[in-house]
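From the pipeline queue, job 12 of 40. The input is one protein chain; the requested action is below.

Action: predict structure.
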Amino acid sequence: MNIFEALRHDHDKQRKLVDALIQTHGDTTERHALMNELKTELEDHAKFEERFFYNPLMCDDLTQEKARHSVAEHHEIDELVEQLEDTKMSSSTWLKTAKKLNELVHHHLSEEEREVFQLAGKALTEDQKETLAKRYNKAMH
């Protein structure tokens, strides 16, 4: 397994969670459970993706700009999660913010897979791609 396959596996999980979240209604157990699972997934993924994927890309001129942009989007996602935590789940504002989070997560994952992975494929050696995947998976799971 290479780093792209490892990241894509977790991206698919995030898409499912964020899509399920905006289908929930009100201050329910289901919404709380999905929110907690999504928050943990996003936090862990961002932390380890930055450590094992973006750090090496920051050192390469080809990928530095895209890596910085993606890390900035991680912070935007964190801010939306914080807004959700500070908003009553039963309010219409909560769902609007959750929909913004859904859009941003989908945009971010799509951009990573279409643009960042392409450049990273040129910047990283095959050995690096496999080693980074092992380190990422060990930290995530």
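Job complete. The two ends are 15 Å apart (CA to CA).
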